[in-house]
Write a structure and sequence with these properties.
Helices cover about 55% and strands about 15% of the residues. By secondary structure, it is an alpha/beta fold. The structure holds thymidine-5'-phosphate (TMP). Thymidine-5'-phosphate binds next to helix 4.
Length: about 210
């Protein structure tokens, strides 16, 4: 089996920069087999789901429907991209995964059975390592230069709740989660994350 690494965080937390740096180092410098992917929207089906979820100007989506759409994207993504790559022994770097559903749809509140539905979609696939880029949402949102999508347009209270959900999840699973202070420079974040990835690769090779 390969190594499954996810990168999580609120809006404008710098996930894409960190993933690119990790990918460039692991794939291009170390010449390892790495797949860089993301949710939602990494497959042809997922692309349409992403469009429905984020880019429909007038969209009204109930919380449960929203969750199920993210989960449909994930179920398909796992079966067609993530599992095959892991089976081939590759490192998979995924921008968002189940913790995003837990944090964002969890922040909506009141969705009964959220955890069970997440497990159904992921078939209990859990990342080996998860980086959470932690930033005050006021600062994160101020970093966004482009037009905001449906979730980015949510009130600041929602984004604060998402951050609290992430911190709660990280506290519950300290062995899997690494919290990174997203106020640090991209280079510092990369060095810290790479150290953890190398440790995980070493641990996996010793098993
Ligand atoms: P992105 O802009 O980082 O690609 O993320 C897309 C948006 O979708 C972001 O606002 C977080 C949100 N999201 C959820 O609410 N639940 C999920 O399960 C996932 C994967 C993303």
């Amino acid at each position: 089996m390969g190594l499954f690494i996810t990168i999580e965080g609120g809006e404008g937390s710098g996930k894409s920069t960190l993933i690119s740096k990790l990918y460039n180092h692991l794939a291009l410098v170390e010449k390892r087999e790495v797949v860089k992917t993301f949710e939602p929207g990494a497959t042809p089906l997922g692309k349409s789901i992403r469009e429905l979820l984020l880019n429909q100007e007038e969209a009204v989506i109930t919380p449960k429907a929203e969750l199920l759409l993210f989960l449909a994207d994930r179920a398909h993504h796992i079966e067609t991209v993530i599992r095959p790559a892991l089976k081939e022994g590759k490192i998979v770097l995924c921008d968002r995964f189940t913790d995003s559903s837990r944090a964002y749809q969890g922040a909506r509140g009141g969705i009964a059975g959220l955890e069970d539905l997440c497990s159904l979609a992921s078939n209990h696939l859990t990342p080996d390592l998860t980086f959470f880029l932690d930033v005050d949402p006021v600062i994160g949102l101020s970093r966004l230069a482009r037009k905001k999508d449906r979730l980015e347009k949510e009130k600041i209270d929602f984004h604060q709740k998402v951050r609290q959900e992430y911190l709660r999840l990280a506290e519950k699973e300290p062995d899997r989660f690494v919290i990174l202070n997203a106020m640090h420079s991209p280079e510092e974040l990369f060095e810290a994350a790479l150290g953890k990835v190398k440790h995980e690769l070493f641990r996996a090779s010793a098993l």
